[in-house]
Amino acid sequence: MNPAFRIKMAKRRGEQIAKEQGVNTLPVDPFEIAEDHNIMVQAKPNTETGVSGMLLRHGDTFGILYATHIPSLGFQRFSVAHELGHYFIDGHPEHIFPEDGVHESRAGFVSSDIYELEADNFAAGLLMPGQLFKREMNKHSAGLDAILLLADKCVTSLTATAIRFAELSEDAIAVIVSTGPNVDYCMLSETMKLLPGLSFIRKGSAVPTSTLTAVFNRDPEAALSARRDEQSIDIQDWLGGSKSKPAHEEVIGLGGYGKTLTIVTCPGLVEAGYEDDDDDDEEDLEARWTPKFHR
Ligand SMILES: [Zn+2]
What we know:
The chain is an alpha+beta fold. It contains 12 helices and 9 strands.
């Protein structure tokens, strides 16, 4: 099966488990779901660095240990939800446990292993089900304030929330995580992808020097603290493109790891998308009124 499809299905499976649990308000509590399935969950303070959690199996009995070296409740809940993914996704228990034992996870989109990615996406779907997330998201205008609010509502980390936001938003929004002078990754909403002549930001590429993020990242203290800053920019500063368009750049330090989260919004792009649609309609209309000759 194609990896993109597997990931999509894993996310949907997470949403389905939240639904089966009867959750209709945020947040979704992964501890409660584990308890209802007789899975014992315990904190494990002394895990190896990088290990976010473990799933243990003995016959039909399962247990979850989650790391607490990162003192973020959002990260801990995501780790528990990730382990639930290994329990609920078809084929996972069989794959990770050929026999009884322990599976160690590295949650948080850091592994390129398809089973780990599936479990991460299950966790995103479980903790941020599309319908509930969108209902809350649509009450606010796209930007860092809305993402902070959603992270609070879902009890999820800022980055996981920002990624989900870009995935589900109908606004033109870009989410960029960077460390010092380099981009770790970048996610664009579907509307942002409509930017004519867009140049995608690749993993590891340099943060464009003309951006607020570049200035922010030059001060090592900025990323380590949860300091915030914002400025009006041109979308071309970040994403290139063939036309100049006003945009807004917001940055916040993510603390411990010295990473920065950047949110770029371009409110004018929605209209640009509609303009293009209108052009298409005119072409359709023209095509409809052009006589066709059958052989
Ligand atoms: Zn895992």
